[in-house]
Amino acid sequence: MLNTLIIGGAGYTGQELCKLVTTHPQLKLTHVFASAGSKNAGEPLPLGITGQIQDGHPDAIMAAAHDAQVILLATPHEASAALVPQLREHSDALIVDLSGGFRLEAGAYPQWYGFEHPAKELLAKAVYGLVGWNDKAIKGSKLIAAPGCYPTATLLALKPVMEAGLLAGLPIVNAVSGVSGAGKSNKPHTQFCEVSLAPYGVLGHRHQPEIAQHLGHDLVFTPHLGAFDRGILATITVPVKAGTTQAQVDALYQQCYGQHPSVHLSGDLRRQAPAIKNVANTPYAQIGWALDEARNLLVLASAIDNLLKGAASQAIECINTHFDFKLRPLPGYGWEAL
Amino acid sequence: MLNTLIIGGAGYTGQELCKLVTTHPQLKLTHVFASAGSKNAGEPLPLGITGQIQDGHPDAIMAAAHDAQVILLATPHEASAALVPQLREHSDALIVDLSGGFRLEAGAYPQWYGFEHPAKELLAKAVYGLVGWNDKAIKGSKLIAAPGCYPTATLLALKPVMEAGLLAGLPIVNAVSGVSGAGKSNKPHTQFCEVSLAPYGVLGHRHQPEIAQHLGHDLVFTPHLGAFDRGILATITVPVKAGTTQAQVDALYQQCYGQHPSVHLSGDLRRQAPAIKNVANTPYAQIGWALDEARNLLVLASAIDNLLKGAASQAIECINTHFDFKLRPLPGYGWEAL
Amino acid sequence: MLNTLIIGGAGYTGQELCKLVTTHPQLKLTHVFASAGSKNAGEPLPLGITGQIQDGHPDAIMAAAHDAQVILLATPHEASAALVPQLREHSDALIVDLSGGFRLEAGAYPQWYGFEHPAKELLAKAVYGLVGWNDKAIKGSKLIAAPGCYPTATLLALKPVMEAGLLAGLPIVNAVSGVSGAGKSNKPHTQFCEVSLAPYGVLGHRHQPEIAQHLGHDLVFTPHLGAFDRGILATITVPVKAGTTQAQVDALYQQCYGQHPSVHLSGDLRRQAPAIKNVANTPYAQIGWALDEARNLLVLASAIDNLLKGAASQAIECINTHFDFKLRPLPGYGWEAL
Amino acid sequence: MLNTLIIGGAGYTGQELCKLVTTHPQLKLTHVFASAGSKNAGEPLPLGITGQIQDGHPDAIMAAAHDAQVILLATPHEASAALVPQLREHSDALIVDLSGGFRLEAGAYPQWYGFEHPAKELLAKAVYGLVGWNDKAIKGSKLIAAPGCYPTATLLALKPVMEAGLLAGLPIVNAVSGVSGAGKSNKPHTQFCEVSLAPYGVLGHRHQPEIAQHLGHDLVFTPHLGAFDRGILATITVPVKAGTTQAQVDALYQQCYGQHPSVHLSGDLRRQAPAIKNVANTPYAQIGWALDEARNLLVLASAIDNLLKGAASQAIECINTHFDFKLRPLPGYGWEAL
């Protein structure tokens, strides 16, 4: 059992991490710290899990980190960027950071996150935790940046087409996220009566460069907020190479994901489509596709739970991949031997 | 006061028509008939309106039609296509059909609606009721096909760009509709627990040819069902002519809609965006835009209430246009002199 | 046309007042002021209504009040209590206050509202605006306290039984309100993801003394917050005099409300029940009842829109009653001659 | 590992059973049958669980039952009542029936379920599976009737007061259920747009006699349907013996549930209250209370997930109790050694 530490345990993602670690056969949840400066210390852990959030004083964190084999960070972006170098000094543990603090190239931080990255050397060594597509790097690194929620939904759908060399133009990505994606803090635009379906971050969301960098291709990304708690649906329209057939696309997705432990295929979108209700509160992605052979246009749909596959459960899958734990996520928060 | 007849008054759209006619200063609601074969005869009209749904026996309808100046049809597509010729025989009234029975060219009906159109001559004379863009035809015809909900949201957003000659490629339209768009009848996929955000009708929805025909340009249209009662949000990504500027687009939308009684502009999407909550239960469209000048890509967002601006209130605006009633729709169901 | 002034026009209730006054045949909306100290000055009025929120500087308010015949206050409780005496000095207008500032006896304010009432003489002259039950007083007073949302739903259901002398024990009132009842300000517990069905204010909500005082009988009142925007459903269980019959109760409600312009009866709850969807976005209450003749227990259900019948539209009905305008509220925001 | 059979696996409860059995360390899911006559045979099991629904032909069921140690029935009430005697002939397995087919006394079936019970001898031997309150009987019987959803929420809250002899009058139970409680079949009143908060089954719901029988006291029970997927909140107002104190009630609930693996206490309702969001998608109940010492009235609130603690997870807890498996349900669907 690996001693496991969660920092930033009071937020929506942190709470999911607590449940996923508790049910994990190889991880032992030793400490759950609040983010520095938060007022959540002393709060109970999620219903059904014994314990409480500890005050995130740096000394306490570093002492716990020293004895940990796994450290999960669900802290704000800039906090993660500052914390990881300190943790690395005190600990050899595998660090999985769920913030945006280690996902982009150093030069992109001032524009997209508003700060100069304080740990460029570590950033250069961080690997992107897109499970199934970057596993060799995940196995080989002690610092993993778990992908963002929109990038996970988008990249899982687009990677097969990109890697197969079928992409022939700009993907147009329209995605809708549940409100938990905005985090737990108090914001006027996430008050209950203020939420309804609307686009935001048009032509300027920081997940656009994250997707572009890890896809290796430019795109148009338009996120939306929807009036539901959890889940993301990304619908993608993308030109493909002339002559591509539906049968070819069927085979491609089957080959990439037919045996995948956490990506499920719904098949041709004209018959059945991914839906938020199929994946909310699960660690699974669900992907469907439909090719317009006459116009060489591929429509993709990809659904995930933003807090699980889009954050916490993918972070645990990174741990499984790194340590070669042969585990499959069960519905809810459990893990089953493959 | 014009005697006004509603056929198909028990459905969601029919109920909204009842309220809009009741509050109208120039219309007198004389009869509300159920669709033929429905079991709704005898049901009360919406709360606050005296009267009940009458049995839709053809004799009763034709007698009432004879004395009417306005006939509103909220009947199923094929029922409308069959009913309009009979009504025309018995009545000189303005007929506004809210179904899809008179929106497409005759040749398109077998593929998209599954029937050979029974009234091709009348269909050839029917005009498309897109208020603000087809007003001369609306004034001149006694048979108006009120536009579909998705086409209304999409066309109101795209028409300015199209008519200004700025369109330079295939518009990608992603739209999400509330569940009332699926009508009132009992369907497994609209059971409460079965609804969540998901695409449907991918590459094969009948509103695609409707939009294409009345826009005059092909497009990709992907509709979605969302877990809310009312409203449509369409998000559109479209290539525009190189060199187009944001200022030019700002001016274009101001010119088209700055004084429009039922289309409101939210402006640059990077600052403020249309939202379902802004238009649900109102007769208004809300439109925003953002131009990526570097990539010559325009992102448009358009929000309407699918039952009002996407159906019933636009139908009444057709009447206002036809008879030259100078009226502006108020929030809710009222009308104010311009 | 009476010059009408709204103070506190930026909140949810204030916005509804704007729409209701705009559509009113006898009222002319002259000014909409922000609450003192709010940052809403300069914001546009609701979609479809021309104008904007004015800064609520006392001098500007008093100048406008001087020329007004009607003043509507949708300000916080303590602000209303302080503002009304100043308004009275500058104006003879009918004042309708929608806050809790003039609903209780003076002695109750420190306990329930946390302040000593600053205008006890005016408070003593204020009348309770429960339309249909206090009309003579409403006609005779220039200061009307519009009832709270929960009290409106509860009192409309219980008054017939109480006044008929059938009440024989403590009414148990369980009510669920939509989130707009908590107002527009930013609160952690009304963040979208934090809202679900839960009781609050148990044994200590300030609407308990309001109901008790205006019913003339003690009760148990347990409010709940539900995950929806608008509407209140109150379900009431109350012992009645032995020997009461269902037929007697049927007749009683028909007599009280059979001709009422804004209270609709759904009849025996065993056949049909009031529902939030029937009344949301309408100015109507819907009431049903079922008598357990064996146990002498009456179950009542009462549904309203908390922002309309529970606030703004009842406030306008107070104006109608005071000035003897013979008007019936239409679905949405319109008014029709009786 | 005990061979475990699910009959009626395609409904909402059946799907939850599949997940709970899959994650259980002592149970092996061998067969999932459709209810007789359903069209669900061939459908896949829930996302993440390998396998499909089998056709529920009696021969296949009886053959599987012969080799099973545990049989879970999520079949309709009358189907369960008919099926249990046949299963008993072919199998010694522990049978847990989640329908209402074995919860009431034989004489109550014609009135409340509309059929004469076909297996009165077995019914007389069936025990009520209210875990924590009927454990000795659950250990001793091979036929367990898992409690209904409303009865679970209500009885868990009321049992402590009843058993302590504090109950001094008729409990008034108001409860709101999510729509999944109405099952998966297609019904007009559970269409998405038709659902909102409303009472139903007033003075005539079949869970009233179930609660009364297993509480040992009459009550008034008013259920409501709310516009959400999962969860039940029951709010109960009940007279208690004069002189009862809040401290006494605090101690009573701590004593009954302080160590309970699936009942959590939120404490005094005036400080914190149970909420649907706390328990939805979990196997936990959450209970709070507040005593009005002046009026000797106790207000209780009890929240559960109707499909889990109100059905499937309590059924598994019955198995744990019967076989003395020392397990605690984890958040989601997992189980942990006590």
UniProtKB/TrEMBL annotation, chains A, B, C, D:
Transmembrane segments: none
GO biological process: L-arginine biosynthetic process
Keyword Amino-acid biosynthesis tagged: yes
Keywords: Amino-acid biosynthesis, Arginine biosynthesis, Cytoplasm, NADP, Oxidoreductase
Pfam (any one): Semialdhyde_dhC_1
Record has Amino-acid biosynthesis as a keyword: yes
Catalyzed chemical reaction(s): N-acetyl-L-glutamate 5-semialdehyde + phosphate + NADP(+) = N-acetyl-L-glutamyl 5-phosphate + NADPH + H(+)
Pathway it works in: Amino-acid biosynthesis; L-arginine biosynthesis; N(2)-acetyl-L-ornithine from L-glutamate: step 3/4
GO molecular function, one term: NADP+ binding
Top EC class for this record: oxidoreductase
Protein's cellular compartments: Cytoplasm
Enzyme Commission (EC) number: 1.2.1.38
Domain Semialdehyde dehydrogenase NAD-binding positions: 3-141
GO cellular component: cytoplasm
InterPro entries given in the database record: AGPR, AGPR_AS, AGPR_dimerisation_dom, AGPR_type-1, NAD(P)-bd_dom_sf, Semialdehyde_DH_NAD-bd
Residues at the active site: 149
Principal subcellular localization: cytoplasm
Protein family per UniProt: Belongs to the NAGSA dehydrogenase family. Type 1 subfamily.
NCBIfam families the record matches: argC (TIGR01850)
Function summary: Catalyzes the NADPH-dependent reduction of N-acetyl-5-glutamyl phosphate to yield N-acetyl-L-glutamate 5-semialdehyde.
Full protein name: N-acetyl-gamma-glutamyl-phosphate reductase
Native source organism of the sequence: Gallaecimonas xiamenensis 3-C-1
